[in-house]
Amino acid sequence: MKLVFTFLLVLFCNCLLAQEKEVFLNINRDTVNASAASYYCKIFENDSIKKETCYYTGSKTLASKAQYNKIPNITSYYNTAYKTYFPNGNVSTIDTFFNGYRIYKSYHYNGVLKDSVFRIYYYTIDANSLREDKVGIREWKWYSNGSIEDSAYNFNDTVLVYRSWHDNAMPGSAGYLDVNFKKISKWKYYHSNGNISAIIDYKKDKIINAMHYDINGKLLPDTLLANKPASFKKKKNAWSNYVDNNLYWPKGYKIINGDTATVVVNYTISNTGKVEDVYIAVPFNPVFDEIVVNLVKSSPRWNPRIECNRAIKETKSQTVTFSNKPK
């Protein structure tokens, strides 16, 4: 009888120490009212563990599940398991850290493997912190069509070999990184037709010397060509104006306790400026979501991203806000 009483007392005390709460979060993961929320989360926490399950309020589907084991007396977490999902139910990321090993995988919206990382750490617990040092690194990435995008692996304890490819399987770049992923030594870059685009010497990401070549392989006189992000037309605010001019509030829809709706859309600008791989990352309502997808898919061509004198893909994430406020 005494043993049973002791067990119940311990269980009761643990329940008192544990806290379970429900929160509503916006797209920035800030706490908000339910009417402005993009996520609804249940969080359980005690002295040794924290569990979190979140759902998209728009699609009512699972957004993420996480479990963290705490290190006693400090704020850091030790072993963790974190899994996220797209609104369509497909897995987005799987991130596991266990006893110094980290295995990470991410996926494209269509289910194709996007990124795979294996790292070995050794760690030391300092005053109220957990210090991590990379020992072994293996990383691979793939495009949504299944072609390999890049890879990085240890050449020795201080240097990594890095290679990348265009989505047509032609070489994109090759060079060396230090363990902090800073570029070192000589790098070669290629146009999507296979011709050399640049040869650049680095010292911890700093350019020491650079030569650039046009798409036909001819050496260019200007060796300081600027890198440029993907851009929409030439006018300032052209893209935001395009979105504003094509976004509309669907007829017959009204939001209780609010007059705005927020949707997050992801898309890719190809190396030819075409908009590809458009999908809703954070939904609101199928009708609103479809308006945003169609708006982005109907976009005229962009100016592609230029990096190291060659056009490459660029992925974008954008928040689109509908407003039904009187003008």
Can you walk me through this structure?
Helix content is 11%, strand content 50%. The protein has three helices and 20 strands. The protein is flat, with a radius of gyration of 24 Å. The protein has helices spanning 2-17, 238-246, 286-297, and strands at 19-25, 39-45, 49-56, 62-70, 77-85, 91-98, 101-107, 113-126, 129-142, 148-154, 159-165, 171-178, 183-190, 196-203, 206-212, 260-269, 275-282, 305-307, 310-312, 314-323. The strands form three sheets. A 15-stranded antiparallel beta sheet has the order 1-2-3-4-5-6-7-8-9-10-11-12-13-14-15. It starts with a helix and ends with a strand. The chain has 327 residues and is mostly beta strands.
Structural class of the secondary elements?
mainly beta
Helix coverage percent? 10-25%
| Main pleated-sheet profile | 15 strands, antiparallel
Helix-strand topology string: HEEEEEEEEEEEEEEEHEEHEEE
Overall geometric form: flat
Task: Work out the helix count.
Answer: 3
Number of strands: 20
Topology:
Elements lengths: L1 H16 L1 E7 L13 E7 L3 E8 L5 E9 L6 E9 L5 E8 L2 E7 L5 E14 L2 E14 L5 E7 L4 E7 L5 E8 L4 E8 L5 E8 L2 E7 L25 H9 L13 E10 L5 E8 L3 H12 L7 E3 L2 E3 L1 E10 L4
Antiparallel strand pairs: 1-2, 2-3, 3-4, 4-5, 5-6, 6-7, 7-8, 8-9, 9-10, 10-11, 11-12, 12-13, 13-14, 14-15, 16-17, 16-20, 18-19
